[in-house]
Write a structure and sequence with these properties.
Helix content is 11%, strand content 40%. By secondary structure, the protein is mainly beta. Strands 1, 2, 5, 6, 11, 12, 13, 14, 16 and 17 form a ten-stranded mixed beta sheet that branches. The chain has a four-stranded antiparallel beta sheet with strand order 4-3-7-8, with no helix packed on it.
Length: 305
């Protein structure tokens, strides 16, 4: 009987001590270092732009960095100095647009081959400067188009397959992105209109950017010809009586900084809210601050039926 009392007592003691919160948790205070605010700049400049319906001005955003635990808005600097140089000569000054809180350059700037430098300065901050070399245009040497050719994922319908052959130069590292447009002749009034098309590639080389969609680095075909495989469904773009007249493909060549920025920003976005993902730092190419200045070149190819 006494042994039974001892057993009950021990069980009760274990149950009380096991419920003690301190046995399973601890608190550690993490001290964050003081944050020294620096300029934060973002600018993606392109040459040329083939979308005639949408005039794009070169833009530069200028703000400041905030500490990880700071609960306030970043600042806007309407009196900053923002200048673009080409091969050491001043190309133009950016002016502040108070309606959009960004700096804008002239319409249709002549961004051609060369070395570009973006200089940004504002009172109270270290001046920023970084360089980008305009990449060469993609050398497109031909294309083919086949309707309802390729199955993809779990879709019941087949996708059209367009192959765009690119002759990749061997003396440089290139990163390609693309846009696809359909030229459609209306079966209603005979007018021809252009639609942008959702297109994708089934190439395992593809990496995903945040804003530019799919990116193909030339690491496996550097210096050789490459068939860019583009999948799209023309049946989605055609109404009764419509005729597909042509397919236009715009191939972009990105600087390496643009490629790293887009892919790290995409990974950073995917990791947000995932407790099992490692944090991803978004790429920056300013030494005394944060942000990126990038360039991309572009060429258009039109495939007629």
């Amino acid at each position: 009987m006494n042994n039974l009392k001892y057993c009950v007592f021990i069980l009760l003691l274990i149950s009380f001590t096991s419920c003690d919160e301190d046995r399973f948790s601890s608190t550690k205070v993490i001290e964050f270092p003081d944050h020294i605010s620096k300029l934060a700049v973002t600018s993606h400049l392109s040459a040329p732009d083939f979308d005639s319906s949408n005039v794009k001005l070169p833009t530069v955003f200028v703000g400041n960095s905030l500490g990880i635990v700071e609960d306030k808005e970043y600042s806007i600097f309407p009196d900053a100095s923002v200048q673009l140089y080409k091969d050491g000569d001043l190309l133009y000054d950016f002016t502040y647009d108070e309606n959009n809180n960004i700096y804008i350059g002239p319409e249709d700037p002549a961004l051609t081959q060369g070395t570009y430098r973006l200089d940004v300065s504002a009172d109270g901050f270290d001046a920023l400067s970084t360089i980008q070399v305009m990449p060469s245009k993609a050398n497109i040497i031909g294309a083919t188009y086949e309707f309802e050719k390729v199955p993809f994922d779990f879709d019941d319908d087949l996708y059209d397959l367009m192959k765009v052959k690119i002759n990749d130069p061997g003396d440089e590292e290139n990163f390609y992105a693309y846009d696809v447009f359909f030229e459609v002749k209306s079966g209603f009034n005979g007018e021809i209109y252009t639609n942008d098309v959702y297109s994708m590639s089934d190439d395992p080389l593809v990496e995903y950017g945040y804003n530019v969609g799919e990116i193909i680095p030339d690491i496996t075909f550097n210096g050789n010809s490459y068939d860019l495989r583009l999948l799209q469904q023309s049946s989605w773009a055609l109404n009764g009586g419509d005729e597909l007249v042509a397919v236009k493909v715009v191939i972009y060549t990105l600087t390496k900084d643009y490629y790293i920025y887009e892919t790290t920003r995409s990974l950073n976005s995917d990791a947000q809210g995932n407790p099992f993902a490692e944090p991803v730092l978004v790429h920056s190419n300013f030494e005394n601050g944060f942000g990126v200045f990038t360039l991309n070149n572009a060429v258009e190819y039109r495939y007629e039926f």
